[in-house]
Fold DUF1989 domain-containing protein.
Amino acid sequence: MGDTKPLGHRSETATGNTHIIPAAHGHAFVVKKGDHFRIVDLYGEQVVDFAAWATRPKNFGYSVDFTEKLSMAYTRYHLSGATPAVGEYLWTNKDEPILQIVADTVKVHDMTFMSCFPEMYTKKGIQGHRSCATNMAEVMLPYGMGSYLEVTDPFNIFQNTPNYSLKPLGSSKPGDYIEFKAMKDCVCAASCCPYDLDLFNGGKVTDVAVVTGIKS
Ligand SMILES: [Zn+2]
């Protein structure tokens, strides 16, 4: 038996299935109830926008239920705030837990801001900039999503924006991670935030990792 800890903090060895999300891109992945997975900041100060939708059994597979999704409003209601602790849940708009936070080396995240979106960049005079909204729509396209306007309000992992402030405070260090347990079958979308203005994301957008198949 070797070190069986999944990719995570500093010197831990990678096990499970590690998917590297290239800087400023997205990734979608399916998890079953009871599965554990991690979002890992490989280089530090990189925000990851995260969303999830419930899936339903269908024939021998599943279909995505776009009507039931991770909801930051429902989650804030249950938390009586916007700061989830280890052991607490993220909720859907059907008022059911979809994910539980089971480990968190950072404990600083945001659930008040929307994803960055194309018009945010065009209004700043930047054409064709990648965005979290379009990243998530891009990776959710094979699951049936049509437009980035269908992307729900995200859980902004590693985003340090207390009291709705927008300053490049940063929160995570290289190797930091948050680990979730799925409370229901779902498909998750994660976007390595491409926002490279005003020194956000450490001033340089960098790769992050998703580790699935973690043995709890
Ligand atoms: Zn973004």
Observations:
- Residues 132-140 form the longest helix (9 residues).
- The chain has one domain: 17-214.
- Residues 49, 115-116, 131-132, 193-195 surround zinc ion (CB under 6 Å).
